[in-house]
């Protein structure tokens, strides 16, 4: 995470992190992320680099301008064009996200 708070939902588990945190979503596992603060920013590293995610995220950004309500049917169609399957919208935020299991230095 570069700024703010972001939750990673990975195959049914959820962890929330802040600046300096990192997470891994192995290929083949259902995953998504949710921006939990207005200032949330991510630096994504996608490997292999030929996965087509750059074009996917560009097209998703155009289809869902900031402040708009996502059309999940449209998002699913965009994802399918890029070889990705959308399994559903991310769940609502949890009531208490004060724990940070990704905090740097935490074991």
Keywords:
3-stranded antiparallel sheet; 107 residues; alpha+beta; 2 helices; disordered C terminus
Describe this structure in words.
- This protein is of the alpha+beta class and 107 residues long.
- The protein has 2 domains: 1-45, no CATH class; 50-88, no CATH class.
- It contains 2 helices and 3 strands.
- The protein has helices spanning 53-63, 72-81; strands at residues 6-10, 13-17, 31-35.
- The protein has a 3-stranded antiparallel β-sheet with strand order 2-1-3, with no helix packed on it.
- Strand 1 (6-10) and strand 2 (13-17) form a beta hairpin.
- Helix 1 (53-63) packs antiparallel against helix 2 (72-81).
- The model is unreliable at 99-107 (pLDDT under 50).
What's the topology here?
Blueprint (H helix, E strand, L loop, with lengths): L5 E5 L2 E5 L13 E5 L17 H11 L8 H10 L26
Helix pairs in contact: 1-2
Distance between the termini: 18 Å
SSE pattern: EEEHH
The proportion of strand residues reads: 5-15%
Low-confidence stretches: 99-107
Biggest sheet strand order reads 2-1-3
Radius of gyration: 14 Å
Number of strands: 3
Count of helical segments? 2
Q: Largest beta sheet, briefly?
A: 3 strands, antiparallel
Query: Mean pLDDT, nearest integer?
Result: 81
As for the number of domains, it is 2
What is the 3D shape? globular
Going by helix content, strand content and strand pairing, the class is: alpha+beta
Helix content: 10-25%
